[in-house]
Write a structure and sequence with these properties.
This protein is mainly α. It folds into 2 domains: 65 residues, Ankyrin repeat-containing domain (Serine Threonine Protein Phosphatase 5, Tetratricopeptide repeat, Alpha Horseshoe), CATH 1.25.40.20; 56 residues, no CATH class. It contains 8 helices and no strands. The longest helix has 18 residues. The radius of gyration is 15 Å and the shape is globular. The termini are far apart. InterPro entries: Ankyrin_rpt, Ankyrin_rpt-contain_sf. It holds the Pfam family Ank_2.
Amino acid sequence: DWELGLRGAAEGGDEDIVDFFISKGAKNWYNGLNSASKGGHINLVKFFFYKETEEIGKYSYSSFIRVNEPMYHASMGGHMDVVKFLISKGASDWEQGKFYANLGKHQNLVDFFHSKQKINI
């Protein structure tokens, strides 16, 4: 299945294989975004984010995209650059971000989310 292959390639960070699966018809950008976030591949995270935003824009006046779930994946993997990118795009569930960072044993991210919570109280 092309969609499953796309997710695996996104998590593994292989841009050529991602392109291959897209050329075969895979286009679940949100699953790609989650997988790339889990793997910590910032270039693919940005690619899938903008593809998903573009797709949503075709069907609605809003370019809203769910970014908290990908942030959880990035937090659990300890990928600070991905977390910061997703926050810049609207992710804001600091408590769950901290939970997943703690689950992944990434103290720097736990501290980061804790500082975000203090600012927003």
